[in-house]
Structure formats: C-alpha cells, structure tokens
Design goal:
Layout lengths: L4 E3 L5 E5 L2 H4 L7 H7 L16 H15 L4 E5 L2 H4 L8 H16 L3 E7 L5 H4 L9 H16 L5 E6 L1 H10 L10 H25 L4 E13 L5 H24 L1 E3 L4 E3 L10 E13 L9 E4 L16 H12 L5 E5 L10 H17 L4 E6 L19 E4 L4 E4 L1 H12 L1 E3 H7 L4 H4 L4
Parallel strand pairs: 2-3, 2-12, 3-4, 4-5, 5-6, 6-9, 9-11, 11-12
Antiparallel strand pairs: 1-15, 7-8, 9-10, 13-14
Helix pairs in contact: 7-9, 8-9, 8-10, 11-12, 12-13
Bound molecules: beta-D-glucopyranose.
Length: 443
C-alpha cells in the first residue's frame, strides 16, 4: 500500500507540558504543600515530595529526553512562591534557575512556553485571602513584571493563568483543591479577580515585550446531552457550558462576564488574549437530575463504548477534541493545544488516544484553523494534585522512589509524529495497528 501522511503545518510546535509543583519537588512554601499536610485531602495521604526532582537538577535529563525524541517545544510553569518567598522578598537565584532552563531550551532547538500561575499560590498570599482578596490581581501583575523582565530574552509565549475555570471550580465549588470551599458567591469573586489579574498581567507582558503572545489555558470539557431529544438535559448542560467552558475567554474578548445568574462588566479585560490555549481531555454526557441541586441538577457519565483510563478519570473521545477546536476557532485567533493526555500506567490506551486526538487536530489544521502547536500532558509521570501519585500521565514513566524513568511505547509514537511533522500510515501500521483501518480506511 502506498504511504499516506496526515501532514501538519510547517513550523508546528510539538511539545509536552509540565507544571512547577508537579515536577520540581521541594515546594513547601505554597498552598498545596499545606493542603498535602491536611489529612484526607490527597489520595492515600501522598505528597509531592521530591516530585520529579527538577529543582534538584533533573529538569535537564527530562528536557534532553524530550529534545532527543523529536520535541521542539516545552511548556513549563514558574512557581510564584520560589520567586517571591515573602511579600517583601524576591529570590533572584530562583529566577536565574528558570532562566537556565529556558536558555537551555532555546539553545537546543526547543521553543519555551511559560505559565505564570498553575494552580499554586505562595502561602503568604493564601494567608492574606489569596484570590478572594481584591489586592491579589495587583500582586500578580507585580510578580509577572519581575518574571517577564528576567525571562523575556528566552520566552515569547506566555500563559498567564492555567485553567482558571478548574482553579475556581475545584477550589470554591466542589472543594477538591485548596481552600476546599463550596461557596458560589466567593467563586464568582475569585473568578472576577482572576480575570482582573490576567488582564493586568497581559498588559505588563505587552509593555515589557511588545512582540510576546499571551493568553490563558482553558480546560474545555466536551458536553453532550445524554438524551438528545430531552430539553431537560439541555438546561444544566447550557449552564455548565457557559460558566465552565465559555465565560472566562468570552470576557477576554468584550469585557463582559456572563455567569448566567450573574453578569458583570470588566472592561479592562477586553482584548486581552493573543491565542486560545486549549486543554482538552474528555467528554461527558449530561443528564438532568432533579434531586441533585448541589450539582446544578445534573449527572455526568462517559459515552457508552468509549475506552476509559485506569482510574475512570478520562474516556477516550477524540470527537470531543474536535468540539474544543471548533470552540477555539470561533475566536478567530491562533490556537495552541496547551494540554491533552490520559492517565495510563500500562501505556495500552495512550498510543491510541494520542494518535486519535492528533488526527482531530490535523483535521482542524486542514480546515485552515490557525493551529500553532500541541503540548502533550505530560512529559513524565508527575504529582497529580488531589489524586497524588495514583495517576500516570507521562510519556515516560517515573518510579517515584528511585527517580528512574522508563520509556513508554507512546514516546516512540510521539517521536515519529514530531519528526515527520505528521501521522504517517507506516507509523500507525507499525506502532498502533489496532486503529489503522479507522485512520486509513481502504474504501
Ligand atoms: C491540569 C494539570 C493536570 C492535568 C491532568 C489539567 O487540568 O492543568 O495540572 O495534571 O489536568 O489531571
């Protein structure tokens, strides 16, 4: 059979994504360190501990792994509590260490993307109310100024805040993240402050580095009515879709925050995103549940027949990636897939998940969507927040005790895709034959 290839645009960024607290180790001065010490908060009482020991120097071997396996980009985050350990103290050595990582990347053919806030807050900030406090956006802008001044020679792509929707939902609605509250009023306030903080950071970035590109990364959940004919399912679905998927990015377009039951004007937010960062993992079927008012009258299930990850966290539904891409395309600005991945310790589902999701990304690129890159979550197994070490998202496996890395089949798959800048029929036939006929049908 002649070879076929789903070719990606020239200059496409192929990378993986990590976050400071999940990989660095030794982060004891932030709200997650405290959360990890609180009994019952993390699965099996686990701690981030040494994590992947990046702060101890293993960032280099992991980034070498990424580079040597064809990746030309990497997304990492800066730990605020390292750079500003106390309100009146800045740690230039910490910044120098981040500069070293980024310099290494740029000298070794990897484009860095840097996230300024990925779920963690310094303890001193938490103790003064964190993002519930209306002074926090100004403090975040000050932190951004310091970081951008120090790192702008190496970075062009900035994510101000990772998944503000998840940060709010998990911290103030379902309570799985610190501060573990369930308070919708406070949730709306935090969301407002995050938007104001993002807007201020966006302006600081452009003031210091006019050519930079800045945006947020949104966790986009594909939502489908469980009973397509039922108008009832559409009620909670419409609400969640608006508040979780759409509200934040829409506000960065026109300064109007629409939380359905509350509408606010935040004019300073308008025009503050240069790209859409799309984090897509899975899809839910949503059904109306009269007796679940606390869950906004809904229940979610995974689509029947979809393969599901180790701990039932993610279903393999590539069509949902297409939903996310269409949503992102609606903004008319470049799109970067800033996260996508699955927890799979045996790496049996990941190769397929990876290829099938990238096939959707390829489709979008060929509809002329402005797709600029894809960052797989994640490079190496790392600390999965309230789920501790129970989930394995890495292309490389990690033995947490010995710090040994193990190369998974998915690395071979991703390496071929990165190097060929496409998904070739030969690669699929060799490495993921089970999906060959779906991807390259004979008729
Ligand atoms: C977060 C990551 C997390 C991943 C997998 C995303 O929501 O940005 O920090 O590890 O999902 O759970």
């Amino acid at each position: 059979m002649p070879e076929a290839i789903f070719q990606f645009p020239r200059g496409f960024l192929w990378g993986s994504a990590t976050a400071a607290h999940q990989v660095e180790g030794g982060n004891y001065n932030n709200n997650w360190a405290r959360w990890e010490e609180t009994p019952g908060r993390i699965a099996n009482g686990q701690r981030s501990g040494l994590a992947c020991d990046w702060w101890g120097g293993r960032w280099l071997e992991d980034l070498e792994r990424a580079r040597n396996s064809g990746q030309n980009a990497h997304r990492l985050s800066i730990e605020w509590s390292r750079v500003q350990p106390a309100p009146d103290r800045w740690d230039d050595e910490a910044l120098a260490k981040y500069a070293e990582m980024l310099r290494w990347m740029t000298r070794n053919g990897m484009t860095p993307m840097v996230t300024l806030h990925h779920f963690t807050d310094p303890l001193w900030l938490t103790d003064s109310g964190g993002w519930e406090n209306e002074d926090t956006p100004t403090l975040f802008a000050r932190f951004t100024r310091r970081v951008v001044k120090a790192l702008k020679d190496y970075v062009n792509l900035w994510v101000t805040i990772n998944e503000p929707n998840v940060y709010v939902m998990s911290g103030w609605v379902d309570g799985a993240f610190p501060p573990g509250k369930q308070d919708l009023k406070l949730a709306a306030r935090v969301m407002t402050n995050l938007i104001t903080g993002h807007s201020a950071a966006y302006r600081v970035i452009h003031e210091l580095q006019p050519e930079a590109r800045a945006g947020i990364a949104t966790n986009y959940r594909s939502l489908i009515p469980a009973h397509p004919a039922s108008p009832l399912d559409k009620l909670p679905l419409g609400f969640i879709n608006q508040v979780f998927n759409r509200a934040f990015n829409d506000c960065l377009v026109d300064g109007k925050l629409n939380l359905v039951i509350k509408k606010l004007n935040l004019p300073e937010a308008s025009g503050t995103q240069d790209f859409i960062g799309l984090n897509y993992y899975t899809r839910d079927l949503v059904s109306f549940e009269l007796f679940k008012p606390g869950a906004f009258f809904h229940e979610r299930t995974f689509p029947a027949g979809a393969a599901v990850s180790d701990s039932n966290f993610i279903a393999n539904v590539p069509a949902g990636m297409w939903d996310g891409l269409r949503w992102a395309h609606g903004f008319g600005i470049p799109i970067i897939v800033t996260e996508n991945g699955i927890e799979d310790s045996s790496d049996t589902l990941r190769p397929r998940y990876l290829v099938e999701h990238l096939h959707q990304v390829w489709r979008a690129a060929n509809f002329n969507y402005q797709l600029k890159g894809y960052f797989h979550w994640s490079l190496v197994d790392n600390f999965e927040w309230e789920r501790g070490w129970t989930q394995r998202f890495g292309l490389w496996g990690l033995d947490v005790e010995t710090q040994q890395r193990s190369r998974r089949l998915s690395v071979d798959v991703y390496e071929r895709i990165c190097r060929e800048n496409g998904i070739s029929s030969r690669m699929v036939a060799e490495l993921v034959p089970a999906i060959f006929d779906n991807l390259f049908p004979a008729h």
